[in-house]
């Protein structure tokens, strides 16, 4: 999939592009059907909400789930990112965010590149965030919010917040957010399952909690230009990947046909099967 000149200009101005219903319901079903089994696994890649056992985010499923491994190589997702950077990309981070009905907690205001720079020593903001909706996203189930144009300001001052939620994040203070919103407003792209958002690593974003009875499962992928790979390995490898191999796309029907993919972490951390005595 190729971006038009006008889409490239919109991305440059606003810091994001929204593609409603880019993936078909039958393609999304293949992915969503896998999620309960992934969330049920007891492995460090499942980060749970601070209130209980509900999964907030699952990391690196593309390394141990065939369907998500195929999504990670999908041309509708990878090609526009390669086009923006003008070079091959590798997977820097892959997560399936639960934002489960009633329990899904907030994501405070932040920029992802702040973390990639501070923690991972990624040289430049040449990594793209991609969100793919596995459930419908509406105004009630905690849609992702953006401050359009905020990516133009580079890396903003941030504080490492280790207490608000179960997942530490470099967050931006309320006063700064107030000024940014006065200038750029807030948008929250909403749409059916199968919709996709591309957003800049410096775009300021957040989401509120999910008090609705509807899950808001979305896949968040971060694809980094290969020459811009991270220089420091401080965070666990399932959060910030250390394999900089360029992504090779599969054909467009890869979510519906069983193309072979490698699953190097299939047996990693899986609990041993208990023998009946
Ligand atoms: C993120 O910023 O990484 C996730 C935000 C969300 O799931 O709403
Ligand atoms: Mn983020």
Structure explained in plain terms:
With 277 residues, this protein is of the alpha+beta class. It has a single domain (5-228), classed as Jelly Rolls. It is built from seven helices and twelve strands. It has helices spanning 5-14, 25-32, 35-40, 66-71, 75-85, 112-120, 174-184; strands spanning 16-19, 46-48, 55-59, 89-97, 107-110, 127-133, 144-146, 159-161, 169-171, 196-200, 205-207, 218-225. The strands form three sheets. A seven-stranded antiparallel β-sheet has the order 1-10-6-12-4-3-2. The protein binds succinic acid (SIN) and manganese (II) ion (MN). The site of succinic acid has 7 residues, from strand 11.
What can be said about this structure in brief?
By secondary structure, this protein is of the alpha+beta class. The chain is 22% helix and 21% strand.
Task: Give the count of helical stretches.
Answer: 7
In this structure, how is the largest beta sheet organized? 7 strands, antiparallel
Radius of gyration: 18 Å
Instruction: Quickly give the structural class.
Output: alpha+beta
Strand order of the largest sheet: 1-10-6-12-4-3-2
Label the overall shape: globular
Give the DSSP E fraction (strand runs of 2 or more residues): 15-25%
What is the residue-mean pLDDT, rounded to a whole number? 95
- Percent of residues in helices: 10-25%
Low-confidence stretches: none
Ligand identities: succinic acid, manganese (II) ion
Can you name the CATH architecture? Sandwich
Number of DSSP strand runs:
12
Distance between the termini: 55 Å
In the CATH scheme, the class would be Mainly Beta
Q: Into how many domains do the coordinates divide?
A: 1
Considering the protein shown, what is the CATH homologous superfamily? Answer: q2cbj1_9rhob like domain
Q: What is the H/E order?
A: HEHHEEHHEEHEEEEHEEE
């Amino acid at each position: 999939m190729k971006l038009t000149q006008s889409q490239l200009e919109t991305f440059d101005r606003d810091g994001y592009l929204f593609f409603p219903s880019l993936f078909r319901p039958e393609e999304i079903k293949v992915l969503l059907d896998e999620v309960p089994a992934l969330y049920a696994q007891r492995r460090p890649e499942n980060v749970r909400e601070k209130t209980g056992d509900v999964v907030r985010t699952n990391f690196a499923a593309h390394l141990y789930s065939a369907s998500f491994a195929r999504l990670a190589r999908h041309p509708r997702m990878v090609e526009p990112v390669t086009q923006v950077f003008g070079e091959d990309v590798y997977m820097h981070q892959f997560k399936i965010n639960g934002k489960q009905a009633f329990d899904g907690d907030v994501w405070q205001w932040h920029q992802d590149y702040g973390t990639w720079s501070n923690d991972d020593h990624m040289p430049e903001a040449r990594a793209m965030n991609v969100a793919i909706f596995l459930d419908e996203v509406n105004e009630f189930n905690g849609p992702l919010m953006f401050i359009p144009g905020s990516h133009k300001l580079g890396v903003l001052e941030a504080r490492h917040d280790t207490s608000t939620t179960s997942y530490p994040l470099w967050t931006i203070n309320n006063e700064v957010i107030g000024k940014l919103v006065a200038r750029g407003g807030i948008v929250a792209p909403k749409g059916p399952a199968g919709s996709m958002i591309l957003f800049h690593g410096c775009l300021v974003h957040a989401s509120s909690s999910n008090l609705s009875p509807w899950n808001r499962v979305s896949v968040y992928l971060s694809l980094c230009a290969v020459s811009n790979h991270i220089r420091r390995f401080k965070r666990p490898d399932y959060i910030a990947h250390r394999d900089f191999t360029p992504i090779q796309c599969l054909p467009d029907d890869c979510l519906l046909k069983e193309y072979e993919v490698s699953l190097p972490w299939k047996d990693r951390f899986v609990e041993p099967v208990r023998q009946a005595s």
